[in-house]
Amino acid sequence: MARNALSLFPLLSDSLFPDRFNRIDRLFSQLTGDTPLSGAPSYDIKRTGDNRYDLILSVPGWKEHELQIETTGGQLTISGKHEEEKGGSEESWIHRGISRASFRSSFSLPDSVTVTGAALNEGLLTISLLQEIPEEEKPQRIAITNSNSKALEHQE
């Protein structure tokens, strides 16, 4: 199961290290002939508004009823399990290179982020997120007073 901390403001190191591990995994896979370890779908995070984001997963060939999205205790979990193909068909596969393996990806959501919806279109699963920042955590502007200025009194 892939477990990711969902950062709406990812750091540079967040993108460097997973890429290095993916390269090493691909290199060993080429040397041994095995399939890469990571079966989790690739994903993008897109800002769609001031406090709105989309988590977009690449899930080509998956149907809505084969995918499951859950949130529990600050964790967003997306899983997929292909239904078994029924035999008896005249068709037979010559080669099957498209992965049909089940997957489970998990993302840690900050307390201020909620899932507002999901849609599957053209092999992309889009999960809409809303970041609601409480008033006490929003930036506040503080007025600066000049300590050198003295109050003037009206004299008669």
Architecture overview:
- The chain is of the alpha+beta class and 156 residues long.
- It has a domain at 2-7 and 40-83 and 100-133: Immunoglobulin-like, CATH 2.60.40.790.
- The protein contains 1 helix and 8 strands, in the order E-H-E-E-E-E-E-E-E.
- It has one helix spanning 12-32, and strands spanning 2-5, 43-47, 52-58, 67-72, 75-80, 103-108, 113-121, 124-131.
- It has a 4-stranded mixed sheet, with no helix packed on it. Strands 2-3-8-7 form a 4-stranded antiparallel sheet, with no helix packed on it.
- Strand 2 and strand 3 (52-58) form a beta hairpin.
- The N and C termini lie far apart (82 Å).
CATH domain class of the domain at 2-7 and 40-83 and 100-133: Mainly Beta
Count of extended strands: 8
Let me know the average pLDDT.
78
Whole-number radius of gyration? 25 Å
- Strand proportion: 25-35%
Strand order of the largest sheet: 1-6-5-4
Put simply, the count of helices is 1
Structural class: alpha+beta
Label the overall shape.
elongated
What profile does the largest beta sheet have?
4 strands, mixed
Order of helices and strands: EHEEEEEEE
Helix coverage percent of residues?
Answer: 10-25%
Question: Which CATH-level-2 architecture of the domain at 2-7 and 40-83 and 100-133?
Answer: Sandwich
CATH topology of the domain at 2-7 and 40-83 and 100-133: Immunoglobulin-like
**Unreliable spans:** 9-18
End-to-end Cα distance? 82 Å
